[in-house]
Amino acid sequence: MLHKIINLTVKDVRFPTSLEQHGSDAMHTDPDYSLAYVVIDTDVGAKGFGLTFTLGKGTEIVVCAVRTLAGLVVGKSLQEIVSDFRGFYRLLSSDSQMRWLGPEKGVIHLATAAVLNAVWDLWARAEGKPLWKLLVDMDPEQIVSCIDFRYITDALTQEEALEILRKAQEGKQQREEQLLKEGYPAYTTSCAWLGYSDSQLRQLCTDALESGWTKFKVKVGADLQDDRRRCRLIREIIGPDNALMIDANQKWDVAQAISWVSSLAEFRPLWIEEPTSPDDILGHAAISKALAPLGVGVATGEQCQNRVMFKQFLQASALQFVQIDSCRLGSVNENLAVLLMAHKFQVPVCPHAGGVGLCELVQHIILFDYISVSRSLRNRMCEYTDHLHEHFASPVVIRNAHYMPPEDPGYSAEMLESSVQTHRYPEGDAWKLRADG
């Protein structure tokens, strides 16, 4: 724990997923799954690995922001950081000059998440535990000490958070043993990206069913009649009893969202994800109210900027499913706050994990949520996309459509060095070949 941080490096790593339309949706038609990849070095040789997810262009801006934050990290010891993790979070998120670029949102917050993800990885490695187990083994007071309650005490106080965590101590060991045996339920987004052909959709859904998947998400929002056709096709393939979710990726205005989803309600979607601007809390509330009689919930959060916005979404009854992201918010620290608020408001958490590295990271947070916070699996599932896991040292393990708890120490963020070098932008071979091609 006396590890002193002596260096922080960050690299722009990109994968040309747009070539095969992986990740395509109504708003992001040509995504290249990418990340700002952070490595922390210490004076004892231990390392911490962190990342934040992007879609290609602009990754270099996040990289620049990470380098700007590096001076706040280098020179500190791990013990110094974790003994006042709340203070360290504030140091990064509330620097008196850098906060002007946020505060706690946008590129600067993505950079903050990448750095903090690396610090959490370093801490878990130092303790010889996977991140989820590090969190589960903390006492309630230590968990709460990692959270910045500023701006959210009108929804959740520190005392209320402690009470939630203390109540969850009962039965914690049994829930941990259950997850180690059975895993955490997942749903797949890999079958129905918007750019896929009907034959591709049919084959991928059929293969997924044979592999045990029962929960499927479909991208919508480009053309209503095409959405109806594709939803009908997928509902016919997966049958009446399996779960279907739809995702518009912020495509519509409020009235348009209500009308469009009403037209798709016959296919019985569990939720409509990101129906409108991710910043429009009252718009989401209006959509939630209008769709409730149709039995369709509203899900959002993958681009929710911070815990303050999540607070207002919950206060306004503007969502029925909370979708945290391991890199959009300020790493684990801020996600802990959202988990606790969601539990108080009795709204299930179903994390976003579409993108390179996101499955690897967010699985740790949702495992902790079940064991130490929510104690429930009702209407809960974690997103899974079957892309690019082979580039990680500790890739996710899916068994019978469930995330199996990671066993390796750390936050599962370490990439294979060969993959980093091949996909570094623009000098990696993957990009040289594309430029030459």
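Next protein, fold it too.
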Amino acid sequence: MSAHDELVLCLSFLWQVLFHLLFVCLLLLAVLVLLMLAVRLWLKGKRSARRARTGRPAVAFFHPYCNAGGGGERVLWCAIRALQRSYPDIDVVVYTGDLDVSANEIVDRARRRFNIVLPRPVHFVFLRLRLLVEPSLFPHFTLLGQSMGSIFLGWEALTEFVPDLYIDSMGYAFTLPLFRYLGGCSVCAYVHYPTISTDMLSVVRERNPRFNNPDYISDSMFLSMFKVLYYCLFAVLYGMAGSCGDLVMVNSSWTLEHILSLWHASNRTSVVYPPCDVSAFLDVPLEEDEEKKCHSIVSIGQFRPEKDHRLQIKAFKKVLDRRREAGEGRETLKLILIGGCRNQEDEDRVLMLRGLCQELDVADRVEFKLNIPFGELKQELGSATIGLHTMWNEHFGIGVVECMAAGKVILAHKSGGPKLDIVVPFEGGQTGFLADDEDSYAKAMEEILNMAPANRLQIRRNARQSVARFSDQEFEVSLLGVLEPLMGTLER
């Protein structure tokens, strides 16, 4: 056999192999499409049966940690209250993974923590697979692991209850295509914080150590390049998932910028500032504090790593040291850390922070107040001088607004929502202070404490007047305005 004949035979064999592979792929694709159609019909049948039974459309919120007690949860309960007030003919459902509490306990905690009373009962769908979105389950490739886990958790939610309108209120964008294409639902997202952002990419490219970029990666050129590639690929997948939303709401100008660059949905995206309980703090008296013998610095925020409580403690240590050098006693100042613990990981983090206080010899001047009720939170804010916030690129900062509404001098991180939306001049007057590292925070604290009480009072007044745009009422108007097109499509 000649070389030409052998080549022809070889090419013929390869073509037959490729043809059969192509046939198998097309067959598998057809089976997959038929399977998806069958699943969609099955889920549509479940929704139709539910509608025939209740006669009412249902709006479902995907919020696996609805009992956590943070700012995201306040958005959830205010959104539910707004929908129940405006649409008495709908049912509201919450998908949650809080299996250790009852429905009544969840609603009662929302009332105590956020001062929110719902007009009607809410139906809860309890999910057993929340473990799949726990970051501790994915020590490496955490973003991808949690996102894939959210798909399985979303599938559990969808098969348990098929809504007419699905709202992801906790940032699990990969559930959007699931509910839209398999569930046949209208889908919407309220984005508190983009799962991936250009800032995260820049941190890795520049090899800067952060809570999500440990030293062993930032110190390695190869690992940093690999992580940049991983982030870029994940950003593409994240953008594809997010683009499935019929409507998108973001909580700040900073979040808007990143979501527009990733999801490419400018005609469907709106800024809806989160609801801050401004009115609840307006009765905190505004008066000069020159008679105070001890000034307290209050921090409000869940005990998550990105909140950077370590920075607060270290900056506070510097202030104490400098005041001691100036001949002032330690008893004139204290730091109060107020926040919620979602799980054992958060509780372990609090233990480490307590250890840091012992190590820095400031434990006698630092208090931890965990999962406290709204009344106690308000009391602590009422007696504080400074409201402290240290999260880098905080998406918004409800705690920052609450401090300003209570008439405290706010000291926040010079980035994200606080910089762009909140701690900005009001009618030409200063509303607070911004800092970005231990030294600048310590310097700002000293400047605030050393100010004349009358000057502090003017900043506090400006701050309180400026935050009316973040009230519950403004949130409800904005939310209902954005959702009105989708709500109008629900069959009644």
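About the second fold: The first helix runs from residue 3 to 54.
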